[in-house]
Amino acid sequence: MSRALRAILEASGAGHGDRPDLGHGLDSRARTGFALSLLGLDRLALLREPGLCVSEEQAQNLEAAFAKLAQGMSPARILGRREFWSLDFEITPDTLEPRPETEILVEQAVALLADRPGARLADLGTGSGCILLSILSECPQATGLGLDLAPGAVETALRNARRLGLADRASFLVSDWFTALDQQNGRPRFDLLASNPPYIASAVVDGLPKIVRDQDPRLALEGGRDGLAAYRILATQGQDYLVPGGAMVMEIGFDQEASVAALFAQAGWRPGVCTRDLAGMPRTWVMHAGGV
Asked: Which helix H or strand E contains 285, and what residues bound it?
């Protein structure tokens, strides 16, 4: 038994204009694209075959997915993957869902490595590996190490590296920030440290939008009482793992430009540039090893 895909889309609200109540605020076109992605079809499938039919099992899976959308689940969480830096990343309950604004961090990292073709970098709190692997995709001679406290995140990042053809230049370790590096023979040093650490104050996490609070891992969100716990570790320990002239690039919260700068200045770092996102909010800080 088969069912017409268009009928399923009509029932979901696709084809009836904007019906945010039927699908996570997605408009008709986006819901259609979401359904085609679930089916493993490209966006031209319905144009090539307007009467396209799917099996009863596929139809039931689509209906269940649209029900999850209506309940507030992220489309990427349902699909189990998210595009970032024009690459496709698997995401799991152990990883953050990559956000477009984090691509600013990748841009900054690639610029910092432009004159270091054989650079070695480390990504602290790697999650899905999207930051590290995106940087490596732009720096073909660079190698990188991703560290994360969650074993499931490390496993996800490794799968992404393999699928993207970057596993020969990327490795991953379970680590509480720098801890695993101290257990190796000789302290490794890197040209660049990158991190999108948890930076939301503990008291604020429960008030976040449901799509973030209930679907992203709390471990990757909560930054302690003032949201700065991870930055204190990065500031006080990071220079021990950098080569001379090395740097760190990190994402920050919208209200943390001055507080993060103060922490790093106190630890002897030299400030680089704080980059703002499209909304004009501070998004990344670059810090250079060594004093002024």
From this structure: strand 282-288
What is the domain count for the chain? 2
**Tokens for 113?**
């490595």
Tokens at 157, concatenated: 């990042």
Which residue carries 């998210």 as its tokens? 82
Name residue, tokens 């076109």.
Answer: 29
Contact 148, 126 (CB under 8 A): yes
Band of pLDDT at residue 128, cut at 50, 70 and 90? very high
Separation in Å, CA 142 to CA 100, 105, 240: 23, 17, 20
DSSP reduced 3-state for 121: strand
DSSP letter assigned to residue 98: P
pLDDT at 63: 84
Domain that holds residue 18: 2-79
Name the 3-class secondary structure at 53: strand
Residues 196 and 88 in one domain: yes
Indicate whether 19 and 120 sit together in one domain.
no
Residue 13, pLDDT score: 63
H/E element, 154: helix 151-163
